[in-house]
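Technical annex B. To support the medicinal chemistry partners, we prepared a structural model of the target in complex with glutamine, based solely on the information shown next.
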Amino acid sequence: MSSLNSNIAAVMKQAVEQCKDNKGGENASYIPFLSSVPSELIGLAFVSVTGEVIKIQDADYKYALESISKVLTLALALEESGADAIHTKVGAEPTGLPFNSVMALELHQGMPLTPLVNAGAMATVSMIEATDKEQRWNKILDFQSELTNSKIELSDEVNQSEQTTNEHNRAIAYLLQSSGRMYSEPMEACDVYTRQCSTLINSVELATVGATLANGGVNPLSGKQLIKTENIPHILAEMVMEGLYDTSGDWAYDVGLPGKSGVGGGLLTVIPNVGGIAAFSPRLDPYGNSVRGQQMIKHVARTMGWNLFTSQ
Ligand code: GLN
């Protein structure tokens, strides 16, 4: 391990030590499965752009990808259709609202404000080119596997738990259709969106996605160019503006790096040209962001001096 990376490993260990006794927040409860995940789990992983992997504590524990999947499907849509075409259908504006807000599609003449809240994410799913729902789903799942450099699978248990409680998202899908912003059958888009949230991932795999975004779209573990370099700034800009929902501004103010949270307890953060860091801890703040995940990544980023807005 390089001396930079052994320094990162030491700081990551420190972060876990400092945060592990924080009992703040609660597991998500609106998706029944998520309330049953052991709340004390805590993991942190870093993957560098050169492919070095650092993992601390429960970094191999698999959890539901949830909203972080929105970033991966956005990347796929950009690959297929190009940034300009996507931007005419879904915006790049922070909502300042909860992730499942219907206002996310009311404020911009019916156009979803961003692909990183539920409304924009379901519209983005519906844009993935496919002849039917299963083909669309398989493309999304395969892309999750490519980006993580691992075989990603659907959890039937998580999916079942979400599919039977997602009335709110189904309503959003119909609202999108009524404003002409849904590009497949709405219940199919909602179904595929719910599945993409219900895959299982561990923190090393999630950090690998971050490292790919930090590395011009080349997955440093497989060496494959998965995302065009020109699409990376669009993805990272969306993450800065909306990655932690209504506290994205606080995250930019405090950490200054693109992040993306999921109600499964995962939190991904990208350090361009350096790597990806992923934290996992199930207890969430009222906005749906992992409490200890934010605390750990904040500690590592500050100690390492990682902040995109810093100048000398
Ligand atoms: N599947 C979840 C939902 O749509 C994802 C939300 C999240 O992680 N913020 O409600």
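Notes passed to the chemistry partners:
The radius of gyration is 18 Å.
The mean pLDDT is 96.
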